[in-house]
What we know:
By secondary structure, the protein is of the alpha+beta class. 39% of the residues lie in helices and 21% in strands. It is built from twelve helices and 15 strands. The chain has helices at 6-13, 17-25, 48-60, 64-71, 75-108, 169-178, 193-212, 259-265, 271-275, 314-317, 322-331, 335-348, and strands at residues 4-5, 33-34, 41-43, 131-140, 150-154, 158-165, 219-220, 222-227, 231-237, 241-246, 249-252, 287-288, 297-302, 308-312, 355-364. Strand 10 (241-246) and strand 11 form a beta hairpin. The chain is elongated and about 80 Å long. The termini are far apart. The model is unreliable at 110-128 (pLDDT under 50).
Amino acid sequence: MEMLTIGTxxxxxxxxxxxxxxxxxxxxxxxxxxxPETGYRYYAPEQLEQARLVAWLRRLGMPLAGIREVCAxxxxxxxREIRAFWARIESETATRRDLAAFLVDHxxxxxxxxxxxxxxxxxxxxxxxxxxxxYSALSDTGLVRPANQDTAYxxxxxxxVADGFxxxxxxxxxxAVEALKFLDHEPLPAGSVLNLLEDAVQxxxxxxxxxxxxxxxxxxxxxxxxxxGSQLALVHIGDSRAYLLRDGGLFRITHxxxxxxxxxxxxxxxxxxxTAHPQRALLLKALTGSGPAPALDVRLHDAxxxxxxxxxxxxxSAVVSEDTxxxxxxxxxxxxxxxxxxVRAANDSGGxxxxxxVVADLVNAxxx
Length: 368
């Protein structure tokens, strides 16, 4: 069989000889033959496909350990692994993008040496319309469950929904939300709201751990937003959800931390299959009493007059379609009316679970 020298193979595969030697040492791409006297490496032409795959995966930014796993898989399984890797990258990038956009906006509206630099209250632009939050929260036991383990809250700045589970689910969800309520009364300079929110989340985690004890059988989801006066900071873990209704379109702005969602991300399930999957409620992340504190999704959202936000437990999203949610939010004139209509829609669909909704509108502040 005709062999390719390492130089020829490097040019054909677009991998440098140095990279090929490294991949040999890591047993990622071994040469077909090594001259016993000179140690010179030779490659078979059919190894080009694997070499190109390695090069492409490196360009994606996949770590070498991940590339080794992908290269050992059959094509279909390798495709699923790459899809899952990229879904993780996009999720991480979205969080960093939101933070970068916030910092650019925040720093663009500040004057060096004046209040408004990071860590100090900013001065809003004279051209920026002042907005205020109008809100309503509603929680219902549903038609099947004997007790309500959800907690829904809407205040001056804090909006939150938590869905407890296990024998102490109700105290767990209540503890998580209570730990955030102090933000209703704290000054929230835009430059430090994420730090304040992360501190509050640590408090919520500790509160749930005190309620749950050393067990993963008791815990809660948590989806909350904090209004700074110009932006909304979001924190999320579990399968409660946050939606944004803007210009007639409904956008889900949270990502479920469930087994089924991970299978959707990896392409192992279709959306139609996911709705009927027997483990669709199995959580991958939640606030519980066992193990280290999980990483929560934290990000910032720009606010526009006319935006309507919905936070809800899966007692709504699991039984009411997003089309119906959009139509209901669009038709209701006020947050309280929308919350009542959504709870009614969940119960009309059988009400198999507790259902909680927080609806909040961003409106132009009335002149003083």
